[in-house]
Amino acid sequence: MNGEVYKISFSAFFADLGYQAVVASFPIILVFQFHLPIYIYGVVESVSYGVGLVFSFLGGFMADKYGSKRVAIFGNLLITLLSFTGLAQNSLEAIGFFLSGWFMRNFRSPARRTMLVQVTDEKERSKAFATLHSIDFLGGLFAIVYLTLALYFHYSFAEILPFTAIPILISSLLLFLARPRSSQSTSKRSGRVLGAVVIASMLFGISTYSPGFPIITVTQSTSRIYLGTLTYAFFLGSSSGFGMLLSRLKIGDYSGLILGYLVTSVASVGFIPLFHYGEFGLYPLVILLGIGSAFAETFEPSLVSKVSGQNVGTGMGVLSLSRGIGYFIGNSVMGVLYSFSYVYAYGFASLVALGSALTVLTLVRGK
To answer: What is d(CA 186, CA 231) in angstroms, rounded to the nearest whole number?
Structure first.
């Protein structure tokens, strides 16, 4: 990996070091601080992904039109809006700050992926995306560690979350220092493959519910808030570690996607029999969810970069768009089903993840 890959990857590290603490705090703030019902949290998450998908597509399109670096830096700077969530005086203010910053995160992501494509050759693309994912999620892991420690020592969200703006600003500086090349990809466009990946990613988005749901599940099972937020640390840590392993292994894009989707399906269904076993039963499932995420975040953008032709930014935007549609549907359904029983919610997620694997299997058979 060249130095530019690490600049972009460590930009992701510092971004997650900041805003992932807000992501883990948000369900706790809404459900346990402002006492909103869980289905409202599900609706808010659906809006964040549903409206955010428009920002994702727009960010990818503008990356092709105005330059990936410029668009990535602009969106990254505005992610700092998330940091004000802890200062909210009521649920509406918390939702407003969270959504505005999250939309900017969506706007930034396709452009940052395009920057990574611009500094790598096609043969090292999956390794580069695995490296990005690993270092990215490592920052998120550290964010959850300091958040959990601060909550354990009884610091409030208002005292913790405003400081998350600092690493996000460092992240923006690293993007500024990166030097993407003007050329993007010499690959031929394959609409058939791109379409299949988009469909599979949308289904995976439906099955990949917000991490807030496992956080709520563990908090309910253990009656300890800090164990709930620690759930996210296990997810991010396992995903980061496995992403680094993927950067060293030679796995085909199609095989990687199928494995990731199957692991996610197994992990989701496991929440049903293990709910009453507390953190000892639930944390291993969260680790499996992290591994499934590492597979998807490595091989989905790698494959899209190879079949998007010269419009890599738009291809990444379409990928984020399809995942956003899935998140919008999935979190809405999860919120409603969870209001009746966690059994229905996690059973639904498992079946849809299995559908993602079958979609890619059909593609491989057809190929």
So the answer is: 41
As a whole number of angstroms, the distance between CA 183 and CA 179 comes to 12
Give the C-alpha separation, 122 to 363, whole Å: 21
pLDDT, tens digit only, all 367 positions of the chain: 578 999 999 999 999 999 999 988 998 899 888 988 877 887 887 788 778 888 988 998 898 889 899 999 999 999 999 999 999 999 999 999 999 999 999 999 999 989 998 888 888 888 898 999 899 989 988 998 899 899 889 899 999 999 999 999 999 999 999 987 754 455 555 566 777 777 877 777 777 766 677 888 888 888 887 788 788 788 888 998 998 898 888 888 788 888 988 998 999 898 888 877 777 878 899 899 999 989 988 888 887 887 776 678 788 888 878 877 887 787 778 878 888 888 898 898 899 888 888 887 876 555 5
Domain residue spans of the chain: 3-366
CATH homologous superfamily for 3-366?
Answer: MFS general substrate transporter like domains (1.20.1250.20)
Global pTM reads 0.77
